[in-house]
Amino acid sequence: MRRLEGKVAIITGAARGIGYSIAEMLSEHGAISVIIDLDQGAVNSAIKQIDDQGNRAIGFTADVTNSQEIASIFKEIHNEFGKIDILINNAGITKDGLLMKMKESDWDAVININLKGTFICTQKVSRYMLKSRSGVIINIASVIGLIGNAGQANYAASKGGIIALTKSSAKEFASRNIRVNAIAPGFIKTEMTDKLPQEVIDNYLAAIPLSCMGTVRDVANLCIFLASEEAGYITGQTIQVDGGLIM
Ligand code: NAP
After folding, report:
1. DSSP H/E element including 85
2. pLDDT tens-digit map of 101-136
3. Residue 84 to residues 30, 50, 106, 127, 171: CA-CA distances in angstroms?
4. Distance 144 CA to ligand 1 centre (A)
5. What is the best residue among 10, 18, 163 to mutate for testing ligand 1's pocket, by most ligand atoms within 8 Å of CB?
């Protein structure tokens, strides 16, 4: 069943990993996926992959921390399609290190891209959604934003901030029929987790009741539900996709 026929959906950080999978699945459900990412070649190949499946995607190269660039891209998308239905704030990075030794530049980079980038894209899309009195925003947080993690103070703070931002924007936008929710993935197999040492991977696997890593499609499936009308009475929530890691 195609649940999002004709919807216009922007997905940040969607040239690969979880973001790409969300874009691919949104398109499978009939949406036009607008991929935003840093590298033009990666954006082009993501679009081609979706195109080859007979589905629709377009793309832009942009940094989510550049508010002028984001504003002008969102304007272009709105001019082209006359609406923006869905925003998925997915772009995110890690720069791990113990708090005692963490460089301020690593703190700033993670907070800027993960948290401020989510704020910027939410603010820039809100003018269109508020006017049309409809919209869905989904923020990709992390279980680390709920429980914290040694060596990830910057990342945990950014993801905890995203969860708080989700609740505040859900309260601000609810009266205009705009729903805002967050997804907190656990341990999902992507390039971000591929770079972790085997010992860290083994420790995670031992702590996950379902005893395996999640897939990018596990996260994308929840996104489709939250973006659909079936989730029409859900806003301000953070939903985990983590194999039972936290309960
Ligand atoms: P990924 O494989 O590293 O992909 C992230 C994408 O975002 C990359 O294409 C990256 O581009 C892009 N990006 C980075 N900075 C950007 C910026 N400033 N503007 C626009 N795009 C930018 O990561 P992932 O594992 O798919 O993670 C996606 C999201 O899920 C992140 O928010 C992450 O924190 C969250 N998450 C992941 C896991 C997990 O287990 N994988 C768990 C919990 C939460 P470049 O490649 O050019 O840098």
Report:
1. none
2. 999 999 999 999 999 999 999 999 999 999 999 999
3. 14, 20, 33, 10, 20
4. 15
5. 18
